[in-house]
Structures are given as C-alpha cells and as structure tokens.
Amino acid sequence: MIEKLSGLFSQNPENGIMSVISTANVNNRNLDLNEKIGYIMLLIIGGNETTTNLITNMLKALSDNEDIINNLNTERNIHDFIEETLRYYSPIQFLPHRFAIDDTDINGIHINKGQRISVFLGSANRDENIFDKPDEFILRDRNEHIAFGRGPHMCIGAPLARLEADIALNDFLENYKKIRIDNKNQYF
Ligand code: HEM
C-alpha cells in the first residue's frame, strides 16, 4: 500500500484528494512524502471502520428498540436517530496518547500539565450530568455528544460519515419494515 501511494504521489496527481494533499501548504512548506502518505492512511483508516461501525450500530439500535422504526418518518427524526446512535454506541470509545495542556482537577483527581491521558468519549457520551437517562436510547432534541471529538482536531470526516449513515438508513427503511438480530449465531 505504501509503495503504491508513493508511486501515485510521484506522478504529481492533478485532480482529487491526492492533488490537494500534494499541493497543501502548511506553515509555508509542502508536505514531505511520509506526511502525504500518513495523511492518506489517516483518511483511509479513520474513515473506514468508524463509519462501518456507525451503520451496523444503527441496525443494532433498530433491532433493540422495535418501536423506533415507526418514528423514522421525517428527516428530523432520522437525523436524531443517527445522532443518538453516535452517542449511545460511540464508534471510537477512547482516544489514547493525549497530553493535558494545563494542570486540572477532574472529580477530585489531579492531572498535571503534560501528563499523558486517555479520553473516554464513550463514557462522556453517557454522562448523567449532560444527558437525561443516558443509558436509554431516545430520539433527543438536544444531543451534544462528542463522538467526533471536540476542538481543533475534531473529526474532519463528520459530514461525510453523517451523509453515509443517512443514505444507508434511508435505503434500509425503503426496503425493510423491521430488523431483528439473530443472537443465536454470533461469530465473534
Ligand atoms: C462515524 C464515523 C466517524 C467517527 C465516529 C470519527 C471519530 C473521530 C474522532 C473522535 C476524531 C478526533 C480525534 C482527536 O480528537 O484527536 C476524528 C478525527 C479524524 N477523523 Fe474521524 N470519525 C469518523 C469518520 C471519519 C471519516 C469518514 C473520515 C474521512 C474520510 C475521517 C477522518 C478523520 C481525520 C482525518 C481525523 C483527524 C483530524 C485532525 O487530527 O485534525 N473520520 N474522527
């Protein structure tokens, strides 16, 4: 894969994402080959399993909450359903290797500036101080989950992931009235 990407970049692509990455100017310089390949890999890995999980989690939510499918009859409800799936089953449960930018206290635990931490998005998305009945799957009016992270590194692919989920869900609803996961045949 790395050799193939390296070959494609050396041909100076003129269109599409490869060309955007090739000509990107970051701090007054272009990216070197390793950085270009790293960015493509980030897009491939970051955008693949996460969205696959979101789509399969939507099916699990439909299977576990039989009545919800009858409410997915407006764009608004479909939007709320996708957001609740992102909150309830956060595809990325935690982000390892982060560093505290300041001294801080969280629930009585002191964290020093520079200390390495893991951020548990899945847990934050079930925070009872933020969400009413956090362990219930509900179509919520306000859903300030952080399944895509927060701040300057928030997921760049969030709009694409939401669009893919919307297309997959509408396609499913056009063809099926109900889904039930057969728990007897689990492969993992
Ligand atoms: C349901 C689907 C997805 C979820 C839950 C998700 C989640 C996340 C999260 C939590 C982060 C933040 C990491 C951090 O704070 O350091 C992130 C970053 C990122 N995501 Fe996604 N992602 C999804 C889909 C995608 C897609 C479709 C793409 C691209 C095609 C993508 C590309 C990226 C990239 C490039 C970053 C790094 C952004 C940066 O560091 O500035 N993601 N994603």
If you had to describe this structure to a student in words, what would you say it looks like?
- By secondary structure, this protein is mainly alpha-helical.
- The chain has a domain at 47-175: Cytochrome p450 (Orthogonal Bundle).
- Helix content is 47%, strand content 10%.
- The strands form three sheets. The chain has a two-stranded antiparallel sheet with strand order 1-2.
- Helix 3 (33-64) crosses helix 5 (75-88).
- Bound molecules: protoporphyrin IX containing FE.
- Residues 42-43, 46-47, 50-51, 54, 91-92, 95, 121, 147-149, 153-157, 160-161 line the site of protoporphyrin IX containing FE.
CATH architecture of the domain at 47-175: Orthogonal Bundle
CATH class of the domain at 47-175: Mainly Alpha
- Could you give the order of the helices and strands? HHEEHHHEEEEHH
- Per CATH, the superfamily of the domain at 47-175 is Cytochrome P450
What's the N-to-C terminus distance? 28 Å
Mean pLDDT over all positions: 93
SS field, number of helical segments? 7
3D shape = globular
Q: How are the strands of the biggest sheet laid out side by side?
A: 1-2
Portion of residues within helices: 40-55%
Strand content: 5-15%
Output the CATH topology of the domain at 47-175.
Cytochrome p450
Radius of gyration using CA atoms only: 20 Å
Q: What does the largest sheet look like?
A: 2 strands, antiparallel
Number of strands: 6
Structural class: mainly alpha
Distinct ligands:
protoporphyrin IX containing FE
As an assembly, this protein is single chain
Uncertain segments are none
